[in-house]
Structure formats: C-alpha cells, structure tokens
Write a structure and sequence with these properties.
Length: 254
C-alpha cells in the first residue's frame, strides 16, 4: 500500500500568490486565457472572445493554497516534476473565485516567465470527494494546464486553434497529461495512471459547434490514453511527444 503523498510526490514550481484579473469559463475544465487576460489590475479588460470565455476578476487576496498545507507541500513537489517534464515554469495558485474550473495563461502575473496556472478551490474540493485516488485527479488537471503552458511557450496554440475553436488544443493538452502519467508509471509501476483518463473523461462535453467545445468524454479519455502510450509504450522524448500529440489532435474532427 502506498500513501497519498507518495502518489502525488515525484520531484519548484511554487504554489504562488499574486494579483490579477482573469477570464475563465466557469462551466468547463481546462480553459486557456490570452496573455492579456491576467493583469496586475482587477478592472475588467476588453479582450477578444476567441475562446468563448466569461470574465472572472481575481484580486491578490483571492489567490492562495488549497486549504490543506500538507497536500500543498506534496503537490509542489509534483508541480516541479511537471515543470521538469514539460520544460516550463509557470506560477501556480488556487482561487475561490474560479468555480468548477482551472485555467492557464501565458501572462506572467504570478511572477513566472512561462505564464500562470490558477486552480479553482471548488474544483479541488469536488475532485477530492471522488472515491479513487482523488489526489491523482488533482494532478491530472494540473498536468493538463501545464500542457497548455507548454503549448504557449512553443506556439502550438497557433497551430491547433482552428476557426477560433479550442477543441484540438484541449485534446493536445490531454495528450500531454497522459504523457506525464506514462512517465510516472515508468518511474513508479504502482502509479494509478488510469485516473488521468477517467478524470479528463469526466470533463468531456457535448457542446458541438461551440468555440469552447473541449471534446467529448470519449475523445478526452482517448487523448490521455494516446499520450500515455507515447511515454509508456513508445518511450518517446517530450519533444517527440509534442509532435505526436499535434498529429493526434489534428486528425480529430472539430
């Protein structure tokens, strides 16, 4: 039997505090934000609604930890491992103002060069009520968001956003999350990598035709499995997996 902390620890991407104004869609997991959508000010900004996102202002006092200091310490080690695997270093914080969602942005409002990731405390609490390895479900969401940071850093969002639709970009982030799960499984055979697939499966949606459609449950789960196989079976480097994931996402119909 392995305890909870051993499952989520693997490695810093610190759990940071900061200030900003963010735009996020409260009903969808894994939103991406344009670089101008987190700022030092809390006043609303006029931004293109490319991603169909809704405004959620965030102030300095809204950014903090999960509420469980022991969990946060363990998570910070895993975030470091994510940073090393994806070659990114974003700022990271939890916020009560973000509902059932988490988001990534290329903006440096949280003090890191590669952008910012904010995880909604309500989403954290919802996942932690799940029966099987909920702490690994939290890591799955973080891996998806760090995948977005990797996309921003390498300009992949310019390749995979088509007709203003983010579906392929989201599935590519799911692929990268699966890649991280595969790497963890190689390092620790008892790691419950399937939780990554079931977590992303649970966030699928049927909003066909919407620019914010992230993919159906089946598509999201399958993207995680494809990424897992890239790492675990094919033993691809991260650079190769990025390209494999792009090809995978491009063949999925919008």
């Amino acid at each position: 039997m392995i305890n909870r902390r051993k499952f989520i620890q693997s490695g810093t991407c610190a759990i940071c505090s900061g200030a900003g104004n963010a735009i996020a869609e409260p009903d969808y997991h894994g939103c991406i934000l344009a670089g101008t959508e987190i700022a030092e000010r809390i006043e609303p900004q006029e931004t293109p609604r490319i991603y169909g996102l809704a405004e959620v202002p965030i102030s300095r006092g809204d950014l903090h930890g999960s509420g469980d200091a022991t969990f946060d310490r363990a998570l910070s080690v895993t975030l470091l491992k994510l940073s090393e695997t994806f070659s990114v270093l974003p700022g990271f914080a939890f916020s009560e103002r973000i509902r059932l969602n988490a988001f990534a942005s290329s903006n440096q409002a949280l003090g890191r060069d590669d952008g910012s990731v904010v995880f909604g405390n309500p989403l954290y609490r919802e996942i932690m009520t799940r029966r099987e390895h909920p702490e690994v479900g939290i890591v799955a969401v973080c891996a998806h968001e760090f995948g977005h940071i990797a996309q921003f850093k390498r300009g992949i969002h310019r390749i995979l956003i088509s007709e203003k639709r983010v579906k392929r970009l989201e599935l590519h982030a799911d692929f990268l999350a699966g890649y991280f799960a595969g790497k963890r499984k190689l390092e620790m055979p008892e790691f419950p990598a399937a939780i990554f697939a079931t977590t992303q499966y649970s966030f699928g949606d049927d909003n066909y035709g919407s620019v914010s459609h992230h993919g159906t449950s089946t598509e999201r789960g399958e993207a995680v499995v494809a990424g897992f196989n890239s790492a675990y079976r094919e033993r691809e480097s991260f650079a190769t997996a990025l390209e494999t994931g792009i090809r995978y996402a491009q063949q999925v119909p919008l």
